[in-house]
Amino acid sequence: MSTVRVFRDDQLPKVFHEPFIKTGYRACETSLSECLRSALYRTNETLNFWTHFVPFLYFLCRIFYLSSYLDFLNDPFTWPLLGQLVCSCLYLSASSVAHLFCCLSERARHVCFFFDYSSLGMYSLGCCVAYRFYAFPHNLMNTNYFFLYIPIAALNAVFMCTCGASGSRFMKESLFRHLCRLSSFMFPYIFCSLPLLYRVAACPDDECDAPSVVVHRWQFVAAFFTAFIYASHFPERFAPGKFDVFFHSHQLFHIVASIATNLQVDALLIDIKERRDFLIATIGMPTFWYSIGILSIIFGIKLFLILVFSIKVYSKPENKHVYMVNGEIIENSCTTDLGTCAHVRNGGRNLTNGSCVVTNGKRKNNNHTHKSRKTKLKNH
Ligand SMILES: [Zn+2]
Question: Does position 11 have pLDDT exceeding 70, yes or no?
């Protein structure tokens, strides 16, 4: 089996860099087969893939197991749970695929993460639908807040998670961009969790006696650590280059997020069992359109928005990466193992042996191929 090429961060364009990760990068124009092979090779993305792919298989098995005693087809009461489980599988599988194929090209990397962010929005919405029908505090049921909860969550899923997070990929690398992306995920999650947080923290109507409450609390503890690990880049922040392949923050983030999702399903199952009669009597049976229906509609809108963002990415001229080797200019390969890459946009005048620059692709002949192609440039 042929090997997978790996590189240092200074051999790749900046768009491929991860904070505090120094080595183990795949080439930024990796072929499809090399991407697939990299799942079994030591790169800094390998465990990012597995830490979401294994939970995806687990939740898939869990759906099949639950369908042995829950009637997902004929019992409308189970539809919000089914929606939440499918959305969980969606975000886990989209994330795995994004991490595996994000090195196909610079443009493909953007598209991969559009899917990743949009699936997280679907997951937030799936949680909201499940919370509304199973976990809402008694004293907030049938209020205006209760009736507006799903419509606002749907808007959040579209505008925050898709437009906000995906749009942030068009911004320049900065703290603002990082905060923008983080808040695009955090705001919808916090909005969805507010009624449940109120229920498990304020205990209205002695609701904390419910057996699900302790599991919901553990879910929030895990969710807090998920956000902390993602935002802090712990532990690689304190030892850059030491956690490039194993135990860097993104892998830990995936693992703790999967644990939080599992605790969430556990708690919902307890609520479904314990509160079923009370919920049906108080808020009625879930309807198709307010559970599976709204999830399907928002999923369709998100696919359309991903298409729009992808067209925007592919309609821009592609960045060119130009290297000077032995007095000769090599362009089109975005990875070089020949020297350190300087990545000067629109530059090229200061090329030295073994260095590289990035231009904005304004040259006419900008076909991108996987192989480097030697070109004598007259005007760079
Ligand atoms: Zn990830």
Answer: yes
